[in-house]
Amino acid sequence: MIRDPTGSTTSENLIWPLRLTWAGLWCERLTHAFWPVWTIVAGTLSVLAFGIQDSLPIEAVWIGGIAALGGSLWALVTGLRRFRRPNRGDALARLDAALPGHPIAALTDTQVIGVTDAASLAVWQAHRARMAAQARLARPVAPDLKLSGRDPFALRYVALTALVMALLFGSLWRAGSVVGMSPGDEALANGPVWEGWAQPPLHTGKPALYLNDITQSRLDLPTGTRIQVRLYGEVGALTLTETVSNRTDPPPASDPAQEFEVVQSGTVEIAGPGGRQWKIVATPDSAPSIIATGGISRQAQGEMAQAFTATDDYGVTSGVATIALDLPSVTRSFGLSVDPEPRDAIVLDLPMPITGDRTEVSETLVDDLSKHPFANLPVTITFAATDAMGQTGQSAPLSVILPGRRFFEPLAAALIEMRRDLLWSTANAVRSAQILKAVTHLPEGFIRNERAYLRLRVLLRELDAAAATGLDAARRDEMAEALWDIALLVEEGDLASALERLRRAQDRLDEAIRNGADKSEIDRLMSDLRDALDDYMRQLAEEARRNPDQQMSQDMQGMQMSADQLQQMLDKLQKLMEEGRMAEAAELMEALRNLMENMQVTQGQGGQGGPGSQAMQGLSDLLREQQGLSDESFQELQDQFSGQQGQPGQPGQDQPGQGNRPGTGGDGQLPDNRSLAERQQDLRNRLEGLSQGLPGAGSQAGEEGRQQLDRAGRAMDEAEEALRNKDFSGALDRQAEALEALREGMRNLGEALAQEQGQPDGNGTRDGEAFGRADPGSQRDPLGRSTGEMGRIGSDRNMLQGDDVYRRAQDLLDEIRRRSGDQTRPDSELDYLRRLLNRF
Hints:
Blueprint: H1 15-49, H2 58-82, H3 88-97, H4 103-108, H5 118-135, H6 155-169, H7 186-190, E1 194-199, E2 209-210, E3 218-222, E4 226-231, E5 239-242, E6 257-261, E7 266-271, E8 276-283, E9 289-298, E10 304-311, E11 316-325, E12 346-349, E13 360-367, E14 378-387, E15 392-394, E16 398-401, H8 410-424, H9 429-440, H10 450-469, H11 473-492, H12 498-515, H13 519-546, H14 563-578, H15 582-598, H16 611-644, H17 676-690, H18 700-724, H19 728-756, H20 805-820, H21 827-839
Parallel strand pairs: 3-8
Antiparallel strand pairs: 1-2, 1-4, 4-6, 5-7, 7-8, 9-10, 10-13, 11-12, 11-14, 14-15, 14-16
Helix pairs in contact: 1-2, 1-3, 1-6, 8-9, 8-11, 9-10, 10-11, 12-13, 12-15, 13-14, 14-15, 16-17, 16-19, 17-18, 18-19, 20-21
């Protein structure tokens, strides 16, 4: 241990420099002694990785291998003789030699002369202190790894470069080819070799096999696997024999290129040097199987639904369902008593998953066959599945009644039955004409739809004439289609009359109660009844506004029912039908029918309403005028496009203007000759003026409504700027945003106003709850519901009303679709039309 004169251990400061210097000595002496070893090893590996041994004679490979092994042993022995293991003293001497004055050696010295002399001892201690300070500055000494003196030709770099290139462009796995090389393999190395591949059918999903890598004697392959063999070298040195293809005219066994398919189990043998033999076990491809799962069902609109499951070992590719008439099971009565005309079976493609595994497919076949002659008759359904090999598997025939649409209106059901008889056989033409004459005789009270009656009479005359001269199949099919349309008209009716629609919905529900309809049909009929009832309530409210002097009948005086109570009545009716309590459901249905028949519009003594109601009325008027302005902006956009294309206008359009098209106010005012931008500014100013008397101050709904009106105002400002810049497309976007914000704001404010008016009145009831209550100023329907003054656009007075509302809406939508499909129109117009379609 080395200590300095202060008493501290100097060697503590030398621990890591000494260790690192010692490790460097190890690296230095190992490199100097054994650099020939790793040079020879790197060079040999690079040669093997490049595969040079595969192209050399076997003798050359063995000579090179012996030389490399001998050289490695010589270099290893020489290195062991030269190698001297470094010790701690060597590292300490190397570290001391790197310091000025050799302080480490000085610290190990001992004073011999003047030990008893105080002055001499002081000088000695001062010397040791300086040496200790120098020793503490010690740093690790780098090893000397330079080999230029020992390797003047840089063979080590040549070997290292060759190894790096072999790793980049070769493969160390190729070095394994020297394994097994022996002088006895000379004939194989210089003579014939072979290659073989086994490619299973693509639909199996199995990978191709390289037969040279298959060492086991047994090989399982799917039937249809294609085997390819290539024989190299001198013809006849290698031969191929096989018993798996069952070929009748095989090529010569020595043919260099041979291909065949595996159709049966057998053997494949390559005879000759390096040959091989396999026992092939052919795995057959089984035919698919398919079964129907569960029973067939009828959906709400008459579609059939039948689940099925198909399986195959490698996957089902397609499937069909064949529906044939089960004639022995048909009840041969009435129009079905005559022999039917022959008809082809129905063939439907089965749904299959687009992606994923098809070894087991569970799907549901859904199709609407209501118009087919087999509908509602006994049929047999046979499912068939096909795999990639073309093999087909069939299910056992399933005997069912083919579902079709059910008609609950008695007249519609009778028309459908006559249609079925005509499609069964043209021999039923006379009988069907007679029954239809009886049906249309004295139609008052039985046929409520005049259009259906007139169309039926025309069809009856044609059927009479065709029956007298002979009804052909084509004409018969046209009449069957006409009967179907008339039956739908009778069943669903003309929706222009809300009361007629309500009565029709009640009649159909009555018929369903008597016939025991299933749950899906009950849900659909109840939904139709609710929709018809809502429509009827809206019509009553509209009638109340148009005829404010109308009085309620004496029978309805004092009768009240809330909307919630009516909803509970409908829910109870649906529950009774679902539970099968048809007698109670029929009684409740009759009570509901009497209630609807006696319902009339009421009148009250209310006034014009408070400031909140007046503000809401102003917002409603503003909304209508903004909608009208948006329509005119769209017309300007159309005219602008027409002008760009050099066209005077489109059908149904006015001539183009320059943003100054005269219009009318929202209340039928005289034409307004101001520009669109000025009118938009006026609407913005009116909106700002209406913000003072809005209801719901301080409530959540009121604050949300005011925020929406602020958003509408900002959108109006942006629309005004766009109109001044003749950017009609941008103006339409901002106007649409303003309309949306206005509607949402009016809805929120309407809720706030309803909360304000919901305080108990003198009679202990709340506004809007009384059924038949006299209050025309409240603008509510007989169930106490708001009809549109609180922001609902559906009941604004300027909207379409009457018989043409549905037809006109459909015509507008069809026109938008037609124009959006015209690719000659400008891109900006097409983009706007697509936004309209996405919105509506």
